[in-house]
Amino acid sequence: MQLHRLTLRGIGPFPDECVIDLDALGVGGLFLIEGPTGSGKSTLLDAITFALYGSLANPEASDERLHSAHAGPEVEPYVDLVFSTAAGDYRIWRQPRYERPKQRGTGTTTQNQQVRLWRLSPGDLEAVLAGGQAGRLLSTRAQEVGAEIPALTGLTRDQFTQTVLLPQGKFATFLRARPDDRRAVLQQVFGTDVYDRVQKRLIEGARDLRRSLDRVRQDIGKAVAVYGSTVSAEPQIVAALEVAAVEGRPELAATLDADAARFSAEVARTTAVVRAAEAEETKARSGLERAEKLAEALRRRADLLARDADLTARADAVAALRERLALSRAAAAVVPLVVPAERSRAALADALATAERVAVRVEGGVGTDEELLRGADEDEATSADCSRAVGELEVWARTEAGLPARREDLANRRRALDEQQQRLAGQRDELDARPADDRELEETLARLRQDAGDAEAAAADTRRARVAREAAAEAQLLEGKVEEAARQARLLLDVQRAAGERALQRQLDRFAGMAGEMAAELRADEPCLVCGSTTHPAPAALEATHVSAEDVRAAEEDRDRAVAAVNAHQQAVTGLTSRLAARRAEAGGLDLTAATEALRVAEQHERQVRARLADLTARETALRKFRERTEQLTAAVTRDELAQDRAEQSWARERDTVDADTARCAELRGDQASVEVRVQTLRTLARAAQQRATAARAVIRARAEERDARTRLEDALAESPFRDPPAARAARLDREAEERADAQVRAYDKERDTVDAGLAELAGLTGDEDPRLDECRLADQEARLAARAATSAADAAATLAADVARARAGIEEARAAYAREAAQGAALLRVSDLAQAGSQSRIRTELATWVLVRRFEEVIAAANDRLQVMSDGRYLLERVDDEAGQRSTKLGLGLQVVDQLTDRPRSPGTLSGGETFYVSLALALGLADIVRAEAGGVDLDTLFIDEGFGSLDPSALENVMIVLDGLRAGGRTVGVISHVADMKDRIPERISVRRRADGSSTLAVTA
Fold first, then answer.
1. Domains, the chain, with CATH or none
2. Confidence (pTM)
């Protein structure tokens, strides 16, 4: 990961826009960020972290403090960062949450955090670095960008502050991290999570394979149990078969083959018995069928002879019934014509009487059909003419009847229109007077607005005063705590100094008495470890006050504990001091009394403003309602005037229509009293003419129907055996009697035919034959029972043989599946066991951990190359399986420091502040070296260091600078934050931060 350009405005103490060309600064590989304490050096690192991750390097700090208090309200704060990763070139712009002026009205409103992320092509990158705008916008949503940045950089915010940007208080995090936390960082930056996934997949695959093998083995046991149950084998035999099946022994096949042969022989024997029994059953069934057929034929013969005798006895009665049925059917052609003939004669008489009553227009009474037809046509024409005239006049009769009501309605509408015209005149007068009232209300409201002031500004002042008062109160408490903490720190430093002097004195005392200690170990005739001589003429004496190695070790442990206590307390003092400075800044330099008075004044001012604002709100509401009423009244007058015009026009049209309708009705009624009277007269004429026409045509139809009915009846009597209609009626049976007689005749004829046919079919029998039916039935039953028994025995044998074959197939199928699973999974089980450090692994280290351990060893080796220089050869880093008090769930990523002066390992927590700094720096640089050389990992091209140089003595600082100078040829950029004078002399490329008189800061870049 490489940072190219950082731009910020309105951030921290920097109200103006600041542009930092990191590419130009990093040409030499090393640049300095220098300036007075509190001037804003660390703000630059906060800006980088905020741009990428939307939060500060310290997770407990709020990004709200990013907005510069020195920037005007019109200045929009932002951070703009251009950077590159293995995924490509990108630009990110992010704006912190801040209070901005409202777009409408007065006061401020909260502007939430905003972000934009672009992807840059090579040409885009050059254009952006030159100050242009280019690139493809990827997202403007904070959640999407928050997920995208770790994917692009390969680092979370915590990992970024452990490997790329090392802020105050976080520099030694990776050095002192727990092995499990260190594992997460290494895995992320080296991109070795693939080995974790491979290991997990191997373990899951092996677990699934074992489950599958267990299931298949259970299937073998189930198949063998089924087989044993089928062949009724003893439990010990079943158990032996299961073992043989699992292990693939040959005795399994021998046992299965023997059982198969035994059951096959039993099937063959029972099958032969079935065939013999079935032949006997067929023979007995044939004899029984012949006997049953003979018995049935003899029974039918006797029944038919009895039915023949009965039919002979009923023959005369059926002949008489047949003759009576024939006469009734002949009468059926005559009787239906008698009633129509009589009805047509009566209808003709009625038609003639009606024609005489309505005075049909024929001279001399009712004339011929031709005369009647001619008069009917004339009457129908007259009726049609009168009906047409009635249809035309009925509409005007209704119109004439409605004329009085319409004239009354016109008079009422005229009165209503006159009243509406008067109301409109009153509304116009009211509307003309409203502009003067509106101007008076507006003038009053303007005066109130002038007096009310800015309530939002007053509320903001109160909030700021309240925050300042709280900060001043907390600062007052923190001052005492800082003084007490500083006093404790001085005491602890005295303790540390005394412990260090005691440890050094113990070491010197031991060196002074070393000759006596070595002399005590001399033995006769054994060479001396110093001179090699086997004679020891004057060995030194071991003094009673001699200091042993255990005494030196105990003194060093006391010293280390004192150093750790001082370091811990110094961090606490630094934290308290930082909090005190932050609270004083939030209080604006006011003490508690002044901040309390400022809060009281602000609250009083806000109450006064809000009191005036309440009256202003009421007046604004009144003006708004007055104008709403004016708008409503204007709309109503306009709407009513349009309605009045439309109503006047409608009234005039209706008046003209009524006058025209009155004239037309007078014309249509002629000499009649009204149009309705003329309609009734025409209806009476039409009705009389239509009655005459209808009566004439009815007479014509009745004459024709009477002639036709009389002719049909006479023709039917001539063709029948009857003299007159009464004779035909006497011979006619009713419907039920005729159907009953016909059914009796047909049933007799059918019975006669059936009996004759049956007797003809059985003519060969005499009636004396004997079928011997009982003997045949007994023989058939015995043969059927014997065949059924034989078949059951054969089916049982075949079923058992088939069950045995299926059970054997189940065993063989389960055995084959187990063999396949075991053969296919053997390699997987071995590799999985090796990957998770199982019984087959000699090194007892998991795959993922082993890969990280190798990388970690490379990091430590690269770090030791620089640590040798920085510590003058005193310290080396060494990997251990786990650190003291930090037991890891994955062995191999522990870390300890080897002190080559004492040849003893130490925990990183026992190092002093300066030692911790350069050991951590060596480790961070070593990590960056290995990551850069590792394809597929995170490329750490940029590193920032924000603490520690002031804790180094001149010699250590010289060694650290030698290492940092060596980075210039490595293609990496390291930015250091320090105000140590010697570093200013050594590093020409720099960012100089300077504080202005008003408390804000500015910066200058020297590259």
1. 2-164 (3.40.50.300), 208-287+774-835 (no CATH), 455-590 (1.10.287), 846-939 (3.40.50.300)
2. 0.40
